[in-house]
Amino acid sequence: MNSNLYGLVAEFNNPDDLLRAARAVREAGYRKVEAYTPFPVHGLSEALEIHDWRMPWLIFLGGVTGCVFGFLMQWYTAVIDYPWNIGGKPYNSWPQFIPITYECTILFAGLTAFFATIFLNGLPRPHHPIFNAPRFERATSDLFFLCIEADDGMFDREGTEEFLRGLGAQLVSEVEK
Fold first, then answer.
1. pTM: predicted TM-score of the whole model, two decimal places
2. Are 55 and 117 in contact (CB under 8 A)?
3. Which of 18, 8, 10, 13 minimizes the C-alpha distance to 44?
4. Burial letters for 148-161: b for 16+ Cβ neighbours within 10 Å, e otherwise?
5. Which CATH architecture best describes the domain 5-51+128-176?
6. Does the N-terminal peptide bond of residue 124 adopt cis geometry, omega within 30 degrees of 0?
7. Of 24, 38, 61, 164, which sees the most CB atoms within 10 A?
8. Which residue ranges does the chain devote to CATH 3.30.70?
């Protein structure tokens, strides 16, 4: 196998053909597959079975961290660092802590979402091997692409190319790293 090969990319003219091909590729057992389209295609992520459960959990943990941080920051300030008796209220009057605790929860969850998106997407990445595919610049205007990566367990250069051509691909080409 060519060690410099990133994968094979198939070109389709319309989203329906791409969607059918994506379903067939997943049913055939390929797992390292990516689709590139000029606009969102309804059902494509389900067809490719793309679901990353890390992001919701990271955002949840970021929100919980913000909640705990906001409450403890106010508690420490009101009870330990600068206790100030106002009208006989207890120092640890938790209802007054709710707005800041809520805002810290939202702030930490939002910042976690922002940085996790950048990290999990591998950004910044100024160049990706798929940019070497012929006619790939048309992925932003009118063509649809489906790429099967060479490090997929089922990848076989000739067999995968033949399979993609059988799905109705207009053009199947190699993508170099």
1. 0.74
2. yes
3. 18
4. bbbebeebeeeebb
5. 2-Layer Sandwich (3.30)
6. yes
7. 164
8. 5-51+128-176
Question: Where are the alpha helices (H) located in 39-146, listed in sequence order?
Answer: 44-47, 54-75, 98-120
Tokens of 9: 């990319």
What is the per-residue pLDDT across 71-82, written as a single tens digit (0 to 9) for each? 999 999 999 999
Output phi, psi for 130, to 5 deg.
-65, -20
135 CB-side CA count, 13 A: 17
CA atoms within 13 A of residue 8's CA, in its CB half-sphere? 22
**Encoded amino acid at 162, one letter:** E
| DSSP three-state, residue 35 | strand
* Residue 153, C-beta contacts closer than 8 angstroms, at least 6 positions apart: 31
